[in-house]
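worker-3 :: picked MCE family protein
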Amino acid sequence: MKLGWVPIAKVLGFCAVGAACASLVANTLSVPVRGDSERYTVEFTDVEGLHEGNPVTMAGVRVGRVDSIAFADAGGGTSKAVVGIEVSSDHSLDRNTTAAVRYGDMLGARYVALSPPDGVALQPDAGVASDTLEPGGVIPLDRTTPPVDLTALMNGFAPLFDALEPAEVNTLTRSFVETFDGQGATVAALLDRIATLSGDLADRSGVYEQLLTNMNALMTSVDRRQPELEQLVTGLRDLSTSVVGSNDRLAVLLDDGNRAVASLAAALTRSQGAFGASVTDLKSVTDTWIADTPAFEQFVAKMPQFADGVNSISAYGGFVSLYLCNFVLKAGDVEANIFGGTHSEVCR
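worker-3 :: tokens ->
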């Protein structure tokens, strides 16, 4: 069978187009790094979903790609993933650069995000500095973040979803939609208030830190006085039990107390400032007592002796001597001294 040049040309053209398409797809999937690049190593505890060729970004800009992924022993019966990345030579990495595996889209694509510890966007290389990570350097486990395990996250909601009926879920969703429908301005204002509150909390972080420090000191003091606190709680419990067991008497006490307080308030009103003056004078008296504390203590110490003397007067066998020194009767301008001018020795 003899083939003409036309079928052969078509076959060759088809193969050429296929090769070109394959090359285009390969270049698209490989995501090459343009220009010169440097290789670094990043250690992760988990790189689920990350593949060779995935992008490496700085501040959201693609600057490299994942070159290799390998399994390694981390010691102590644990393991780690060692990821080799290529980064354009135009961008340098700080020694404290952190790395995280993040989601690139809803289909589960991953990428490696590099950022400095303070969150400021990394700048293009402006010369080698002492704090620059040398090519071939390693970003260790303590400065990397593994990807979020969505499976474990969704499994956490499994008990809730199992307990809810599909109709209830639909009703709940519909309620949310109807609640926020047409309330865009209100929701925006709410979010603005939340942002303002968050900013205020951030501005007063020092105050809250001091509050937490003081609360820690308070809790430490309370913990040291745990026995006294237990006694206080026990005493309050006993008091509550006694009060509950004497409801009738408590009601009478409250009623009488109410009347007594009302009477006291009326008396204070009628006093027209006399009560305040009494309190002021009482303060003056106490100030005098404080200044003469030794004399007051001596007076109080002698009070029992004085009381004993007064009591002995009315005791069995006690007596009081009375002396009549003068006895005058007076009626108008006339007066008469019954006993004359004679006075006893005691009255002189």
